[in-house]
Amino acid sequence: MLLIDPVRMLPSLLLPLVGVLFVGGFSARSYGFAAVGVVAAVVYAVVRWATFTYEIVGDRLETKQSLISRSIRTIPLERIRGVDVSTPPMHRLLGLAVLKIDTGASGDEEEAKLAGVTLDEAERLKAVLLRRTSAPATPGAQAYEPAQPAERTIFAVPRKWLLYGPLSGAYLLTPFAFAGGAVGLAFQWGDELGFGRDAAWNAGQWLWDHPYLLLVVAVLLVLAMPFAGGVMYAVFNWNFRLKRRDGYLVAERGLINRRSVSLEFQRVRGYEIVDGLAERWAGVVRAWAIVTGLGDSETRGQLLPDVPRNVAFQVTGDAIGPYRGELRPHPPVARQRRLFRAIAPWAAAALVSAVGVWVLGTMIWWMLLIVTLLLAAGGVPLGLDRYASLGHGYDGRRLSVRSGSLRRAQAVVERRAVVGWRLRQTWFQRRAGVLTLIAGVGAGKGGYSAMDVSMTQAVDLSTEVTPEWLAPFLNQSADEDGTAGGDPLRRS
What we know:
Blueprint: H1 4-23, H2 28-50, E1 52-57, E2 60-65, E3 71-76, E4 82-87, H3 89-93, E5 96-102, E6 112-118, H4 119-131, E7 151-156, H5 169-172, H6 174-193, H7 197-209, H8 211-237, E8 241-245, E9 248-253, E10 258-264, E11 268-276, H9 277-282, E12 284-291, H10 297-300, E13 302-308, H11 309-319, H12 332-359, H13 363-389, E14 391-394, E15 398-403, E16 407-414, E17 418-424, H14 427-432, E18 434-441, E19 447-454, H15 455-465, H16 467-481, H17 488-491
Antiparallel strand pairs: 1-2, 2-3, 4-5, 4-10, 5-6, 7-8, 8-9, 9-10, 11-12, 11-16, 12-13, 14-15, 15-16, 17-18, 18-19
C-alpha cells in the first residue's frame, strides 16, 4: 500500500507539479519543490496506512482512522447488504484486493472500504461478513474462520459471446470519447506538450476548411466503433460468471480489474431485462437484479451481460424466479400517441425546412428538408415498435411491465415487493383516456410503470396484484352507485 497509494495519487499531483516546474522555470528550486510534493505524498500514504485499522467486535465491524482527527465507523453486520471484492492492476501485481462494504444507507457510495488487504484476507472477510459471524468472546482466539460456503455456478458466459459487445450502445461511443479527450488535451495542454495551443487550433481550422478530410476522420471513427467497443466490453465483462454461494448471488467479471459483487438473495425482489434496437435484432439482452437498498445498482446489480434472450430468461428464472404469464397489450390509442410523438417533431422540422427552401432555396435548406423527411418517415416503424414493446401482466406471483424501443426494459417484480400504487395522467393522456400506472417498489428504481393503460386495465391490474388494498374502495363504490358497474377508482 505504501507503493500503491503514492502511484494512485500521481494523477491528482501531476497538474500542481507541472505548474511548479513551469513557474520556477525548471530551476533547481522548482525541482526541489516538486520533490517535496512527492515526498509529502509518500508521507501521507505512510501515515494513513499506519493509522487505519479494522476489527470485527461482536456483531459489528469497526474501522478506525487517525490521520488528523480520530474517526471511528461502526457497521452492524446485520445491515451489510453486499460485499464487493475487486483487484485493480497494481493490487493484482502485489497480491492485494479492495474490499467494499455496502449497507444501502449511503446511496451510490460504499459504507466502508478496505483498500489494501491480501486476496486470502479479502475472501475470508467476505465470507465472515456475509455469514454475519460474531466474534468469539475469548481474546486472542483464532477468530472468524467460517466453513467454506457451498458454491454453485449458475451460468458462465462463453467467451465467444463477447462478440455481442459492439451491440451495446454505450461501448460503441468509445472512439469518439477518446477523440474528444485528445482534442481537449491538445487545446488545454498544447503549450505544455511542446507543440503550442495555436498549433492545435490551426490544425482544427485546417480540418474544418477541408470537409472531405473531416468526413474521412468521421468515417474512420465510425468504423472503429465496433472494434473499440468490443475491446472495452471484453475488458469489463471478461469471464463473466454468475454463482450462488451461501444465500448470495455472486457476479464475477473483468480482465484488468477483476470484480466480485455479492447480492443477498433475500433482498432480491426481481430482475430487469434490457435491450436496445441492435441487441433486439440480434436476439440478445442484458439483465439486472432488482435489490432493496442497493447502491450503484446500474453497476453492482448486473446479472448478465449481452446473452441470447432465451438464455437470459432461463438464467434469471433459475436464479430468482420465472415470470410465467403473458404480457397484455395496451389500448390502440397508445399506438396513436407513440406514432404522433415519433413523427410530429420531424414533420414540423420538415415544414420549417420547406419554408426555408421556398424563401431562400439554398442547398443547406434542401439538405435539412431531406434529412427531416427521412427522420419523419423513420418515425413510423419506431412508433409501431414502441407500441409493440408496451405490455403488462401478473402471473399470480410476479408483476411484469415493459416499455421502450431504443432502450426496451421489462421489469419482473415479486408481489411482496409492491408497497403502493400511483396513478399519473397528463393533460394529453386525459384527453386520450389513458394513464400511467406506477407500481411502487421498495427496491431498484423505486417504481415501475405500465404506460398508457386504460382506466379499466389500471383498476384490474392493481386489484389483481393487491386485492386486499382496493377491496374496501371497490365495495364502497358499488354501494354508492347501487351497482358494481360504476367507475370505482374515480369515485374512491
